[in-house]
């Protein structure tokens, strides 16, 4: 199982979109500064997840969300699952 996820940094007021086969480990790497793209927004919290059966599907969905280039789109996506 693969997960597309959205993280939120309160300190930077920013979202980060990614995908992983092990979300728990991936979040740990984000929050210990071992991920170049998120090391300056600690701590990060998971605000959205969507599971897929293949890595390709998870990656495609990640790219779809990123192509929207809109925090408003991301907020609507997060709120639609609450």
TrEMBL record:
Coiled-coil stretches: none
Instruction: List the lineage, top down.
Output: Bacteria, Pseudomonadati, Bacteroidota, Flavobacteriia, Flavobacteriales
Q: Which domain of life is it from?
A: Bacteria
PROSITE patterns listed in its UniProt record: GIY_YIG
GO molecular function list = endonuclease activity
> What CDD domains does the database record attribute to this sequence?
GIY-YIG_SLX1_like
Instruction: State the protein's name.
Output: Putative endonuclease
Write down the InterPro entries for this protein, in alphabetical order. GIY-YIG_endonuc (IPR000305), GIY-YIG_endonuc_sf (IPR035901)
